Structure formats: structure tokens, C-alpha cells
UniProtKB/TrEMBL annotation:
GO BP terms: osmosensory signaling via phosphorelay pathway
Catalytic activity: ATP + protein L-histidine = ADP + protein N-phospho-L-histidine
Signal peptide: none
Organism: Fibrella rubiginis
Residue stretches making up the HAMP domain: 200-252
Protein name: histidine kinase
UniProt-listed Gene3D superfamilies: 1.10.287.130, 6.10.340.10, Histidine kinase-like ATPase, C-terminal domain
Segments crossing the lipid bilayer: 180-202
Domain of life, source organism: Bacteria
Length: 486
């Protein structure tokens, strides 16, 4: 617990509050002491003046009468024992003292504080040297001693001693100081409690984030934190949630990819094993029964071997083509061309297959269709794959139609291939462009479904997409758009 962020911040905050409170108490105490000194000095400002009136200056010599001065010093000290009287010249040099000569350790005091006190412009208290205690300044009272002609002769300099213990006790028992100290204690307690509560609330989000991080560390990538602010901690929580979501999504993708990889291996093994087994079987038959086979049987077997070999070559070619498209290694050769002419050429290629399957091939190709801007070889590949897929899933007496119409306001030409086949079920619809996916009853009959996956990626390379509309047992329509060449 002591190593937690809350504990460290709390200890630091408590130490700061105690330090500030101690500084405030010291400051208040010192201020109170200065207040006592100011009050005492202000009350005794006239003390030196009243005593100076009793001191006489010889009119002949212009000097202070020593006998009278000593008697006056003794009387003043009897009345107020804490005062000490000195006579100093205008530069602060000692002339006479009420203390014994051996007790007077300074022979001069600073003259500037004397002038400041007489001037009355500097705020009280004003401190000056104590001839008996060097290094311990005292408050004082001062008055000029005048010659008969009114000019200053010297200064009567009175130090006002204080009882430090008595002053400290009076300060401590002062009502004002007690009130200030009570207020300071209450304020410090309130600040301390409020600060600890705020630190707890602020570190609560950090603790929640730490708990979520530990959950992620232990493998629970669904952990999230509640973001309740937009400050740095809130931004950190948002970033963590985003990171956790991406990790979770990446893991799901990896899991799906791993599942697809296993399915891919199984599908490839199945689709390669079937023609290979056929090729192997017919080849062995030819070799073992070479002398008994008729010419027609031998030709039939060889045609079957050729068909399976072509199927294997087509499968390998499609796999290679799809890998290049997924790795983005295919470079588009963009050029203008007539999409209607390209469709007509491909319809002629598929016409024998359609006639063999008793499927009608139809087209709706406007005469004035503008040229499109695309890679003609790749778009031809898209058309071939979609038409071949339509013929594969359309029964006899069915219909496959291709239509083209310009969308001038969008500067696009839309190409559509519609069939009257068995359609696509809603559960199969999200997967029709997945690699090696075969739907429903065709899973075991059809070869690997790479055609639509290749077509989808080619169209995506042209910054377009293939739209699919399908109704089970009614038919399916594939369509995509290409930009018009201006």
C-alpha cells in the first residue's frame, strides 16, 4: 500500500501541508513579536524627550552637567529598570552611560537608525545597537540635547529592553494570535482532508486503469475502463480502450485467419487430390491395359487426363494471381477503352459453354456508351470470373444477362451481370468474396471459389466495389462501376 501512487501523493501532500503550517506559525509568531516591539517603541517614543528636558547644558562650557545627568539616569532606571540611558554625539560615539564602564562593550552606535527614528518616516519598529549586548539590537527612544543657541549637541539614547520569555508568553496567550492559530489549524485540517479526498478520486481512475492493464496482461482482452473526463487521465483511458479493442479485434482476426488457413489447407488438399487421383488412375489404366484398350478408350482417358491437368493449372494460376493481388504487387495499366466491345468479346467466348448448358446469354449494351478508364486486362478478368460464376450456378433453360448503362451525373458507367440461378442465402452473403468459399450444396461439388475473390480485389484496386443483390431460387445480380473517360 505504501508503494501505491495514492500513498506517495498523500504523504507528499501531508508533508507539504505540515511544512506550510510550520512556516505560517513561525511567520505569525515573528510578526506578533515585531508587533509587541512596535507597540512598546511607539509607547516610549516620548520617553527620551521627557528625560532630555531635565538634563541641563552648561551655558558657559556648552557641556552636559555630569552630576545632574548621573542622578537623572539613576532616577529613570529606578522607575523603569528595563531602560538603559546613554549620551552619544551626533555620529553615535559614546559620551556617557548609565551602565558601569565595564558593562559597556560598544563605544559607538549606528547614527542612521537614530536619524530615521527622529525623522519619523520609517515604519516602526526600528532597531539599533545595544552597547551592553553587541549583536542583539534593541528598540530605542532618542531625543536631541540642544545647546543654548538651539543647535544639537548630542543625543539622549535610551535602549528599551524586553523580557523575551515574558513577551513570548504574552504572544502565546494573545487572543488574536490564538484565533489566528486556531484558524490556521482548521484551514490546514480542511485542506488536508479535501486534498486527500481529491487525490483518492484522481488516483481512482489510475487504479482502475492499472486493474484493466493487469487483466489484459493475464489474457482478458475484453477489459475496459470507464472514461469520465477529458483530461490527461481520461485521454489515457480512451487510448487504453482503443488499444484493447484493436488487440481484441486483431486476435479475432488472427483466429479467423487461422481458421481460414486450416480450411484453405483442407480445400486445397481436396481440390488438388481429386484431379491428381484422376490423373494417376487414368495413367495407370493406360499403362496396365495398353494392349487391350481401344483407340476410342485411350483417347477418352487422355482427354480426361488433359482436362484434370488444365484444371490443376487453372487452380495454380488463380492462387498465384490472388496472392499477387492481396500482396498489392499488381500494377494497374490504366487506359481508355470501350466496355461494350470488351463485353461482346467475352460473350462470344462463353457462348459455346452457354449453349452446351442450354443457358441463354443476353446483353443490353447502349450504342453510345462512353469509354471507361481502367485496366482492360484486369476488367476482362472480372467479367470472365463473374460470367463463369453465373453460368456455374444457373440451371438449364436459365438466363444470364449483361447490361451497361452510363450514370452521367456521377461520371460513371455501371456494369451488371444477372442470372436466374439458385441465388445466395442470407447466411452465405457475407462470405461470397472470401477465398475458397463455396456455398450450401455446392461445397462438395464445385472447385475452389477463387473467381469472385479475385474479381472483388481487382474492382477494389480500381477504387470501386462489387454490389450484390440476390434472392434465393430467383437469381443473383453482380454490378460494379467504372469511371468515364473524358
Amino acid at each position: 500500500m505504501l508503494h501505491s501512487l495514492f500513498a506517495k501523493l498523500s504523504l507528499l501532500f501531508i508533508a507539504l501541508v505540515l511544512l506550510i503550517s510550520a512556516v505560517d506559525i513561525y511567520s505569525v509568531t515573528q510578526t506578533s513579536k515585531r508587533f509587541v516591539d512596535e507597540t512598546t517603541q511607539r509607547a516610549n517614543l516620548g520617553l527620551a524627550q521627557s528625560i532630555a528636558r531635565e538634563m541641563h547644558v552648561d551655558t558657559v562650557t556648552g557641556q552636559i552637567e555630569a552630576v545632574g545627568m548621573n542622578q537623572l539616569f539613576m532616577s529613570a532606571m529606578t522607575i523603569n529598570p528595563i531602560v538603559k540611558l546613554f549620551v552619544v554625539d551626533l555620529n553615535g560615539k559614546m559620551i556617557a552611560s548609565s551602565a558601569k564602564p565595564e558593562a559597556t562593550k560598544l563605544q559607538a552606535v549606528a547614527a542612521q537608525p537614530i536619524r530615521d527614528l527622529l525623522d519619523g518616516k520609517k515604519p516602526l519598529p526600528i532597531y539599533n545597537d545595544d552597547p551592553r549586548n553587541p549583536g542583539d539590537p534593541k528598540i530605542f527612544s532618542v531625543a536631541p540635547l540642544l545647546k543654548p543657541d538651539g543647535s544639537p549637541l548630542a543625543y539622549l539614547y535610551i535602549t528599551i529592553g524586553t523580557n523575551d520569555q515574558l513577551d513570548l508568553a504574552s504572544v502565546r496567550h494573545s487572543y488574536i494570535l490564538s484565533a489566528l492559530l486556531r484558524s490556521l489549524a482548521i484551514a490546514a485540517a480542511v485542506v488536508l482532508v479535501a486534498g486527500l479526498v481529491l487525490i483518492y478520486l484522481l488516483t481512482r481512475h489510475v487504479r482502475q486503469l492499472n486493474t484493466a492493464v493487469r487483466q489484459v496482461q493475464e489474457g482478458d482482452f475484453s477489459a475496459r475502463v470507464a472514461v469520465q473526463s477529458s483530461d490527461e487521465i481520461g485521454q489515457l483511458g480512451t487510448a487504453f480502450n482503443s488499444m484493447a479493442a484493436k488487440i481484441e479485434s486483431s486476435l479475432d482476426t488472427l483466429s479467423r485467419n487461422d481458421s481460414l488457413r486450416r480450411e484453405l489447407v483442407a480445400n486445397i488438399s481436396h481440390d488438388l487430390r481429386t484431379p491428381l487421383a484422376s490423373i494417376e488412375g487414368y495413367t495407370e489404366t493406360i499403362l496396365l491395359r495398353e494392349h487391350v484398350l481401344t483407340e476410342i478408350e485411350r483417347k477418352t482417358y487422355l482427354q480426361t487426363i488433359l482436362k484434370n491437368t488444365q484444371s490443376l493449372g487453372r487452380l495454380v494460376s488463380e492462387l498465384f494471381e490472388l496472392s499477387k493481388l492481396e500482396a498489392k504487387q499488381t500494377t494497374l495499366q490504366i487506359e481508355p477503352f470501350s466496355i461494350t466491345e470488351l463485353i461482346q468479346d467475352n460473350l462470344l467466348k462463353f457462348e459455346p459453354q452457354a449453349n452446351e448448358q442450354a443457358i441463354q446469354l443476353a446483353s443490353d449494351l447502349p450504342r453510345h456508351t462512353p469509354f471507361v478508364l481502367a485496366d482492360v486486362a484486369l476488367i476482362e478478368r472480372v467479367l470472365q470470373n463473374i460470367i463463369a460464376n453465373a453460368l456455374q450456378y444457373t440451371p438449364q433453360q436459365g438466363r444470364v444477362s449483361i447490361s451497361v448503362w452510363p450514370i452521367m451525373e456521377a461520371s460513371q458507367v455501371r456494369v451488371s451481370v444477372a442470372d436466374t440461378g439458385r441465388g445466395i442465402t442470407p447466411e452465405d452473403m457475407p462470405h461470397i468474396f472470401d477465398r475458397f468459399y463455396r456455398s450450401g450444396p455446392m461445397r462438395e461439388k464445385a472447385r475452389l471459389g477463387l473467381g469472385l475473390a479475385i474479381a472483388h480485389r481487382i474492382v477494389h484496386l480500381h477504387n470501386s466495389q462489387i454490389d450484390v443483390q440476390s434472392t434465393p431460387n430467383v437469381g443473383t445480380t453482380f454490378s460494379f462501376q467504372l469511371p468515364i473517360y473524358n
